[in-house]
User: What shape does this take?
Amino acid sequence: MQLSKRTLTRTVISAAILAATTGFAFAEGTLKVGLLSILEGPFAVPGQDGIRGAELALKQKGGTAGGMKIQLISGSSDGNPDKAVAATRKLVEQDKVQVMIGPLSGDEGIAVKNYAKTQAGITFINGSSGAQAATLNDPSTNFFRFNTEGAQWMVGLGDHALSKGYKKMFLIAEDYGFPYSQVQGFMASYCAKGGKVLDKAWVPLGTKDYASVIAKIPKDVDALLVVLGGSDAVNFLTQYEQAGGTKPMVGGSITVDQTVLNYKGKRRESLVGTASAGPMADSLDTAEWKKFVADYKANFKDGFPSPSLFAYLYYINTKAALDGLDAVKGDLSGGQKKYREALQKTKFVGPAGEVVIDANRNGVGPTYITEVTKAADGSLFNKVVKTVPNITQTLGLPEAEFKKMGLGTRDIPDCRK
Amino acid sequence: MSAAQWRRAMNTQLPRAQVSVVTQAPDRSATSFPGYIPTQDLSNQNKSWLSRAWSNIRIRHCLVLLGLFIYPLIASPFFTYQIAAQSMALGLIALSLTFLGGYGGMVSLSQMTVAGVSGYLIAIFGTSSMTAISLGWPWWLAVIFSILISIVFATLVGWLSIRTEGIHTIMITLAIGVAFFYLTQQNYVLFNGFQGFSKIGSPTVGDVDFKDPNAFYFLSVGCALLSYWSVKYLVRAPFGMALQGIRDNPRRMNSLGFNITAHRLAAHAFAGLLASVGGILLIWYNNRISPGSINTGALINILVIAVLGGMKHPIGAFIGAITFVLLQNFAIDLVDRQRFNLVIGSVFLLIVFFSPDGLLGLWQKLRVRWASSGRDERIQGSRRA
Amino acid sequence: MKRSELAFWWLLVLPLVLLSLWGLYEDATLFLKTTLNGLTLAALYFIVASGFTLVFGLMRNVNLAHGSLFLIGAYIGWIAGEYTGSWLLAVLAGFISAAIIGVLIQIIVFRRMQGEDLRQTLVTIGLSIVLADLMLWYFGGEIYTFDPPAWIYGTTSLPIIEKFPTYRLIVLCISIVIGLGLWTVLTRTRIGMMIRAGVDDRGMLSASGVNVQRIFALTFALGAGLAGLAGVVGGTALSISPGEDTRYLLASLVVVIVGGMGSVPGAAIGALLIGLAEQFGQAYAPTYSVVFTFVIMIIALAFRPRGVLGKAI
Assistant: This one.
């Protein structure tokens, strides 16, 4: 009869759906490691490079660590913390990864750290997220960040700016967490040593037309502090040049990195000479860095001419994760206790300096002050002019003073007069 | 309409034809509208409410209810929580869109915004990571106020948009949604800007902790079922009938004495109630809210969900939500990791192109084909679903 | 005009005049610079929106893939510019490629769904998602900028304002030319007459012997081509990257809604309002400048649902 035929069909279909939802089984002897990066939207390009960095670390270990084959399962986000948490949740609860590496951007890091608190049995290792709050505010014992964060990356640049005679500066930055940290890192020493930031122009993320911001630049500043990333940076720089601007610029860590120096177009001359700071630089002279660059170029023909900041950060975090597995010979039992102890003791010489972490599981490391220079073949790169070693999260200030300042926001720190 | 319904309608003893058989050329404003829903069969009008409900229950209803009950027992916690519970919450918001669009004729892209408003209010009134902003009220107080204020917001949006129609309604509601998104992104005093609020937990009621996947699953399924039944009841009640009449021919309804504005506003308010409940479920599910939850992509996603399932029937919203959540979570496993936007977009494009009534429309077409391939040759071709 | 309407206009205009006087007094350079910035931004929005209003107002086709046409025109224009080294050829290539793709969309999608507003909206939304991802796949997520001749790209000195980007003035000129050109075509030529007739009553137009489908394909090609042209012109001013399509689509929507669908002067007025609002907002109240644009649209729609110069559909 038609009724039972319909019922039968529906039952079969429902059963099929149910069967499909019970999940798949994977081979033994493999350790699943989740890798979260941004693969959608404006940060897709750096996100892609981050994945390259992680894959390079794994390749250098021959695809195994701690005696097990490592399977990297990637997840994608688009920069929104919600999506990052959803992707992480899928990797942890559905794909059953034991170790989670990522995310890419600052606010995502805070969200993933909060999620990590609900998953005590999984170890979360940062990708390239650089917001201070991820390890300073309410840290999680299973969230490790082997790289230094956004504020640490700018320590020393303030002194450099003063040494170049920039006593009064004007800030243009995007209005979200990561630039707040960067600006705090810069101003912590800049203001203390007498510099003045006359005004701050916080633009909404994704602003394209900087004409009005440029119109508001006071005439008596010595230089501009530009903490923009990706396409925002390119737009600002081209528009500033077109508007006849001639003031020198000091850039944030992602304002003149490889992704920006490599944009497809010819208007790059105005970038030469821009000072910046970050945890690595294209032109480091050490043997480790040169080996890193050579490996990157050999393995990724479709990559940048030189590994970007994100490739480097994902690389050292992944390497630390895999080294930790080697140290405990793959023993993730007992809530991964031994593994986390091994991670805490991590100490190796990465491509851009030594990699160690502090009591809050946040990286302590050097910052390199750079200037954009033109290479012999016409391409642009960042040349190291100074190295500032061993920067902690208190940014070179005594701990009490740092606690009084609090974390960077739109108005903190402030030194207008 | 299916063959079975047709036969039932043809065989009723009612004096006037309740079935809207289209014998004349279809009026452009009504039947060519993709969300057009034919008038329901009212042959049972004379029986009591309870016996009417009883006689309408079919085996499929029992199977579905049974399936919903035993689902958490057979599925993993991930599936119960991330797939099923999230689908129910999203489906609720899409249901409000289906109600407004399909039965009210006003396709509004700001339903997700209403959900966002209620989510943000829960964060502001309740407890969250931003102790400077959150007021720390008990959860039930936060829920009540959040729903009330969201309904007021939805009515305001409705008041702004009822003077428009068709594509203008879509655009003004999109504009309202985007304006609110930018407001939450830029304002730090109330909405905490780009970071939003985190650590918003589901409450613990007595012995039941709603953070547990199964408990949350039953909560969201319960809300979804209640909403589904209330929408089904409402569209057959005088209010719903009047609303559909206003959708088809406002001028005639006006001359019959119905207050068009009041009906439309009430529809927006009811849809606002549905969306705000969905929004509260979503914020409890995510444990966080930020402007990214209500950006342009999220607003369009709700439209995609409603259309995917089909705007002809309330169940379409939930079918669309389940499909969408499954695609979103598993497309990355099926295709090259970076191309899953292409997959979701292509599936949506194909469905809208070939079946404007979504998956439900596809299902109807298949049913008609099976029915006609059987024995009822005379029904075949008389009315395409 | 009724008394109440007059009062409403005075209520709106007077505060603006007072604020402008205050701005001029405070910092004349900033005020004039912002005004000129607003005008030039409005010019760019007008070029993009004119294509959209042409297609919607004339054929009642809701083409939400308009932003994707903008981006595709920009990318293909960029490739052409790279190969030939000529910026003008890039502009031309952008126009032609977008026009061709536009005609394809018109034939495949819109001809089948005439009159079904919602379905067109949905199909074009799906199309834009697919196209956006295809472009991301092929062109990557990098930023593309154009290389126009040096004389366009420098700075000009103006009285009071001192230095101002030449290119923005060029964009202003281009948009005035396009606006006048469109208006002339629509009101003074035979083709324009047929297009306008087709909007009012397609049946009669067809009955009088005109090939309506061809006219519509031509109009769509023109509208889409304008989007592609705007892609190259706008891309030179503000660079090209994924996500631009949504941005310019939203901008066109707002401009056309405020100005009125199907009216080229309306698009101009809408673009002026939105461009000026955006720039003044950024200069004087940067935190909420983005919200202003949409609030204006909401207010405009609430009080004039058809737009400032819109005609009843």
Summary: The radius of gyration of chain B is 22 Å. The beta strands of chain B are 197-198, 204-205, 208-209, 288-289. The mean pLDDT of chain B is 81. Chain B touches chain A at residues 59-60, 63, 67, 74-79, 81-83, 129, 182, 185-186, 188, 193-196, 198-199, 286-290, 292-293, 295, 329, 332, 337-338, 340-341, 367, 370-371, 374 (CB under 8 Å).
